[in-house]
Amino acid sequence: MAKIPDKSKDINIELSAQLTTEEDNSLNEAQLKEKIKKLEENNYWLQLENDAIKKR
User: Fold this and answer.
1) What's the Cα-to-Cα distance from 34 to each of 27, 31, 37, rounded to whole Å?
2) Measured between alpha carbons, how far is 30 from 49 in angstroms, rounded to an integer?
């Protein structure tokens, strides 16, 4: 019997993306700069973690 794909994950991702877009539209310039700073810092740490995993 064929497995039916789970569409709930796709729907949750789409809803989450819509909420994020609506939230971003209401942010002012200072808030956006702070959000970018936090995202860049998170990206830096994720890259370090990824590099460490690759070296194993």
Assistant:
1) 10, 5, 5
2) 29
What is the token pair recorded at 49?
């973690």
**Which residues fall within 8 angstroms of residue 42, CB to CB, at 6 or more apart?**
none
Angle at 51 between CA 45 and CA 56, to 5 degrees: 130
Q: The pTM is what?
A: 0.51
- Nearest C-alpha neighbor of 42 from the set 50, 53, 52, 31: 50
The per-residue pLDDT for range 2-33, each reduced to its tens digit, is 555 555 556 666 666 665 666 667 778 899 99
Residue whose entry in the numeric block shows the structure tokens 């994720």? 46
